[in-house]
Amino acid sequence: MNLQTLTDVEVKLTHKGRSVFANRSFSKGETVVTGRRIMPVPERTNHSLQMDFDLHIEIDEPAQLINHSCSPNTGVRNNEFGAYDFIALVDIPSGCEITFDYETTEYISIAIPECGCGSSNCRLKTRGFKFLSTDIREKYGEFIADYLKP
């Protein structure tokens, strides 16, 4: 477990399973969670993250436990630890669940075929970055996996 972020975030059990919540407020642009690569995986799983077209990895907790939302409060940025930092896309109040859009790391997604994020902007399915509209891609700007950037 990443001890640096443990005071800033907390893992709680919810109807979705283990989920990550803010223990303090975060400002837009601030790093909320730093993920660290544990190891590459030979085949992608529901819990692996894609780092390149032919590379899926396991990352440490709490980063591994951040749930999907079609209206997330964090985006991803590749980091020096071979994984992703989760960066606040908006101001995040203390007590809020930390979320990111799985389609910003997965070219083709297998994790949650039917989305249940509950967002008013829910896309109902997570199919992957390959299928995202230009509008949604532009909304995330730089906060997508490096290998997906033009």
Describe what you observe in this structure.
The protein is mainly β and 150 residues long. It has a single domain (3-148), classed as SET domain (Beta-clip-like, Beta Complex). It has 1 helix and 10 strands; from the N terminus they run E-E-E-E-E-E-E-E-E-E-H. The strands form 4 sheets. Strands 3-9-8 form a 3-stranded antiparallel sheet, with no helix packed on it. Strands 4-6-5 form a 3-stranded antiparallel sheet, with no helix packed on it. A hairpin with a 2-residue loop joins strand 1 and strand 2 (17-22).
Rounded to the nearest angstrom, the radius of gyration is 14 Å
CATH topology: Beta-clip-like
CATH H level: which superfamily?
SET domain
Please state the overall shape, judged from the principal axes of the Cα atoms.
Answer: globular
Order of helices and strands: EEEEEEEEEEH
The oligomeric status of these chains comes to single chain
Poorly predicted runs of 5 or more residues: none
Strands of the biggest beta sheet: in what spatial order? 3-9-8
Strand content: 25-35%
Give the averaged pLDDT, no decimals.
Answer: 94
Total domains:
1
Report helical residue fraction.
under 10%
* Class from helix and strand fractions: mainly beta
Count the DSSP helices.
Answer: 1
Query: What profile does the largest beta sheet have?
Result: 3 strands, antiparallel
| Assigned CATH architecture | Beta Complex
Instruction: Give the beta-strand count.
Output: 10
Distance between the termini: 33 Å
CATH class category name: Mainly Beta
